[in-house]
Amino acid sequence: MGIKMKITLLAISILVISGCSNANSQPNHPMMDNEEMDDSMRNMGGNMMGNGHMSHNEVVSLNDSTGENELKIPSMLERDNEEEVAYTVRAQIGKTEIFDGIETNTYGYNGTFLGPMLRLDKGDTVKIKAINELDENTTFHWHGLEVAADADGGPHDVIKPGEEKIIEFKVEQEAATLWFHPHPEGKTSEQVYNGLAGLIYIEDDNSKSLGLPTDYGKNDIPLIFQDKTFDDKKQLNYRAAMNDDGTIGDTLLINGTLNPKLTVNKEKVRLRLLNGSNARNFTFKLNTGNSFVQIATDGGFLNAPVTLNEITLTPSERAEIVVDFAELNTANDLALINEDGSILLPFDVSGQNGETEEIQKELNDFALTSEEKSLPVTKEIELFGMMEMVTINGKKFDPERIDFTQEQGVTEVWEIYNKKDMMGGMIHPFHIHGTQFKIISRDGEEPAENEQGWKDSIAVHPGERVKIAIQFNHKGVYMFHCHILEHEDNGMMGQIEVK
What we know:
Blueprint: H1 3-24, H2 34-50, E1 69-70, E2 85-99, E3 102-109, E4 117-121, E5 125-132, E6 141-143, E7 164-170, E8 176-181, H3 188-193, E9 198-203, H4 205-209, E10 220-228, H5 238-241, E11 251-254, E12 257-258, E13 260-266, E14 268-275, E15 282-286, E16 292-297, E17 300-308, E18 310-313, E19 318-324, E20 334-337, E21 343-353, H6 370-374, E22 377-384, E23 391-392, E24 404-406, E25 412-418, E26 428-432, E27 437-442, E28 457-460, E29 465-470, E30 476-482, H7 485-489, E31 493-498
Parallel strand pairs: 1-13, 2-5, 4-9, 10-14, 13-21, 22-25, 24-31
Antiparallel strand pairs: 2-3, 5-7, 6-8, 8-9, 10-11, 11-12, 14-19, 15-18, 15-20, 16-17, 16-19, 20-21, 22-23, 25-29, 26-28, 26-30, 27-29, 30-31
């Protein structure tokens, strides 16, 4: 065993002891016996030696996109009939030609890989027939959608192989880019990794009046970013690639496309960014250094466009940005890149001009009230640990335990604290089901301008304390958890009952 590995395992040992000490300081925290701890240590050591990152900060870089394949655009899901807003969504097993001439085993919704885009309007009463055609249990989680708990698709809402469920809800939130994915206990990471993810667009009267690019697949482009590791047979061998601290790959797929490029006209193009990865964070920017404008967060439009040179999204976060290709110098190569310079998406700008309408200065009327800012903290969330030792408030997920209760329609303030571990800690993307919330502060400071909008997931940095104002409009039991999917599967999840 190398010196670096010995140091790492020593740090893990200290972390385990520290974590258990923390658990002892609070009542009713489940403890590990010595045998369980030894097994956990061996598993963590094996994972760290076998694949993945050696620390929270060292991750494998992505291969550059060669731009040889035109970006695939998810199809729009058609209604089952014209009389009602009814859809059928099937979770399926398939084979997909990701690499030329090679079939990769994949999962998909209404197809072999990923899923269609589901377009809804505010005010719609929606009926979805969810069918499980996999050979294992799954759920259908509507990420970011404000729905009653029995329609949310959390780990309690299991649909067995060959079974189906009718899910009904009314769309009562504003225009946003949401998504759907599975959420079975202990299996979310593998099912998403294998391809289960799709988009939801909500539109409303405001979104239709803003004059934004809306030509789907032409100047309104969905971008689902996911990193994968393929084995020597070009298969998604999750068990081989899996890392308990978050599975990271060296190969980027956008909308399931390998080595993608996007052909655009000389016009303003709206890019709807979704970090659909298991664990990788992305910092998006243009290789030319040019700026773009952000117009929306997870759950809706910002009040006004925010000019940025880069934007970071952790797993499950979304953002809508507009890039004006009419204003960019297209004589040289142009691409969307990651923070380390990896080429994510080359752009091929045609000579054809398109829409040039200016983005309106007023997009929304989002507000964080003085009353919300002055509310006391009523719920404290402590995120802690690494690998299999991740916890929330010193506890692992128990489907029979309710961690918090909150009254329907009442706004409360939660404080989320990312406690550093002995290795310094890592960013935890914290997600709450069934609602959208407002960020009050980060370490006592006002959030950045481009975070002053509706959110359902938030990046919490090591040592950071974030306050949010949150209200649930529906009753039932909802999940809150880290959206590093392996952390979620390892128990970094809790439950709130809304009464």
